[in-house]
Amino acid sequence: MFGKGKHRIHSDAVNHEFRRKLWDGQLPLKINVHYKEVSTSKRVRSLYVMVPRLNYFTFILERVKAAFDEYVSSDLVDNF
């Protein structure tokens, strides 16, 4: 039991909530374009996203593509 007085919580409930938050957590990602694929003189900024831990990378590909389309050649954009 955790807590004092009327605010006592059973330890199993705390452990379950902690495990649930870890399981449902998100991962921070930093995504860059390889310097050999850049076809502009503009400074390419990294893309920072938070994604669910159990997500597939393919679910965010459209977002990544949209962020970097202006920095790569049109033939790479068209072959996506």
Overview of the molecule:
This protein has a single domain (5-78), classed as Ubiquitin-like (UB roll) (Roll), CATH 3.10.20. It has 80 residues and is α+β, with helices and mostly antiparallel strands. The longest helix has 13 residues, at 11-23. It has helices at residues 11-23, 61-68, 74-78, and strands at 26-31, 47-52. 1% of the residues are buried. The chain starts with 10 loop residues before the first helix and ends with a helix. It has 3 helices and 2 strands. It has a two-stranded antiparallel ribbon with strand order 1-2.
Topology:
Elements: H1 11-23, E1 26-31, E2 47-52, H2 61-68, H3 74-78
Antiparallel strand pairs: 1-2
Features:
elongated; two-stranded antiparallel ribbon; about 80 residues; single chain; 3 helices; Ubiquitin-like (UB roll); alpha+beta; about 30% helix
